Here is the input.
Amino acid sequence: MDVRPKPRWFKSSYSGGSGTECVECNHADERDDGCLKVRDSKSADGPVVAIHVDAWRAFIRAL
Here is the structure.
């Protein structure tokens, strides 16, 4: 049986303070193919975007 703790979501430090544009992230986990997750904090049960850590690093380097 695979018992995993609930994902720990954290709000991006770049999210606005007005509560209208909030992004939450979840650290990459090797049990989930090394993908980090991103979601809209106002819609926690909504869609989640999974991004492989290698693609994220390439994106950050390109910035």
